[in-house]
Amino acid sequence: MHRERHLIGRVGWLRAAVLGANDGIVSTASLIVGVAAAAADRNGILVAGVAGLVAGAMSMAAGEYVSVSSQSDAEKADIDRERGELATSPEAELRELSGFYTARGLTTELADEVARQLTATDALAAHVHDELGISEITTARPIQAAFASAMAFSIGAAVPLVVAIIAPVQTLITAVTAAAVVSLALLGGIGAKAGGASMLKPVLRVTLWGVIAMAITAGIGRLFGAVV
Asked: What does the mean pLDDT of the chain come to?
């Protein structure tokens, strides 16, 4: 038996997890670096870091849930509309389905036969998949996305926070920055590996933008000499 293992089924939770972990590392490290650059003491730095972790995780969960729920609502509305069209105009819908297969390279006769057979089996499923482009693999899952994003954010944010706890105050900015850069590089590699992509471009992309964000935040903190 020929077995295939595709990774597209991971796209829903993988996108949310990578986004959450990246945001956790970058935002928390940037916050800690910015506060430290403003010459705050360790207590102030840690309070800011913990507050950033908690607030960020809750924000990521809420944001993912709301945004993916909007996608889910749109999918359900389109499916309901398609169900109504199948009930009121079945022949037109059959011709429409046949047209999709003709456009993809089938002969008219074969496209008509495929459309008739799929319609007889499950007309709505055929239109949802081939007309709307919605499948079981890519359908929106709000709770899964919210949970993955919040957990990944917390794990990512914990890295610079732990470093801020154990690093000497004098070298805290350097230590947190270095830990964040290494974590971002690892995240890019893990995300690429999980998605079956090459590693170089994701690692460079994630690391570069993280460094830019931390540099800007540190600059603002040093410029104004206040917690940002």
From this structure: 81
